Amino acid sequence: MSTAVEDTFVGVRFGDETNLTLCRTGGTIFACDERVVVDLDRGPAMGVVERSPMPVFKPCQKKSARRILRQATSKDTSAYERQRKNEFLAKRYCRDRAKALNLEMKVSRVHFSLDARYASIYFTASGRVDFRRLVRELAHRFSARVKMVQVGARDEAALLGGIGVCGRTLCCSTWLKDFRPISIQMAKRQNLSLNPSKISGQCGRLLCCLAYEDDHYKQAKSARGRKQRNARPEAAS
Questions:
Q1: 90: nearest Cα among 146, 37, 158
Q2: Spatial distance between the Cα atoms of 52 and 71, rounded to a whole number of angstroms
Q3: How far apart are CA 47 and CA 63, in angstroms?
Q4: What is the pLDDT of residue 7?
Q5: How far is residue 73's CA from residue 80's CA, in Å, rounded to a whole number?
Q6: In sequence order, what are the residues at sequence separation of 6 or more whose Cβ sits closer than 8 angstroms to the Cβ of residue 92?
Q7: CB 107 within 8 Å of CB 160
Q8: Which of 103, 112, 114, 173 is within CB 3.0–4.6 Å of 161 for a Cys-Cys bond?
C-alpha cells in the first residue's frame, strides 16, 4: 500500500462544499488556487485546486479519483456564473411550481452541470411524490435533463451545511458520511439534558455527536458496575 504523495493527484473544492474531492491530473501540474474543470457523475463542474499535490493512501482512492478535463478558461468562468444563476432561478421556480401543483415536498438544493445539460433537484418529503409534471416543466423551462433526488432530514442538513450548537461547522457537511443510529439512551448515559432543543441538530434529529463517546460511557458504566459488585462482599464482612 502506497502512502507517498503523488504529483498526479490534487484536492479540488467545488462551490461551497466543505470536503475536497480527490482528482487525477493525468500528469499535468496544477497549482493551488487554480480553477479547473472536472468530470463528475452529474456532468462537468468547475472547482478550485486547494491542495497540490494531495496524498493518496489507498489504491481504492486512486480508482475513485475524478478526472480533471482542463484548466478553466474565461468561457468556463462565464458558464459557471450562468450555472449559479440557473441554480438560484430553478430553486425558486421549482418551489413555486411544486406549491401550485399541490406537491407535498420541500426543495432543498438545485445543482446544474457546468454545460447546463443536467440538473439535479434535491428535496425532502414525508411520502411518495408524483413529480412527473414538475420534471417536464423544469426540463422545458431550463432545457436540461432533470433528475429528482429525495433525501432524508440528515442528508438535507449535510447538503445545506451550517453551524452546530457546538459553534463548529456541521459534521455531516464536512467529514461525517455514514449516519450511525442515535438513541435517547446515549444522552441518558452521558447525563445530558433530555430537552429536545439541547440534544437535537438542525435536521431535527438527535445529535450525531452523541455517538462519538458512547462506547466510552458504556465501558465506564460497566467498570463501575463491576467495581460495586466486587466491593459488596468486603462491606458485608
A1: 146
A2: 14
A3: 20
A4: 54
A5: 11
A6: none
A7: no
A8: 173
Low-confidence ranges of the chain (pLDDT < 50): 1-5, 237
Could you read off the pLDDT of 179-189 as tens digits, one per residue?
Answer: 788 889 998 88
47's grid cell: 472547482
Residue tagged 438513541 (cell numbers): 183
Copy the grid coordinates of residue 169. Answer: 461547522
pTM over the 0.85 mark: no
Q: Are strands 21-24 and 66-71 parallel, antiparallel or unpaired?
A: parallel
Q: How many CA atoms lie within 13 A of 78 on its CB side?
A: 3
Domains, the chain, ordered by start: 5-72 (no CATH), 78-151 (3.30.300.20), 166-214 (no CATH)
Widest distance between CA atoms in the chain: 87
pLDDT at 232: 66
| Of the candidates 113, 130, 127, 125, the residue with the CA atom closest to the CA atom of residue 155 | 125
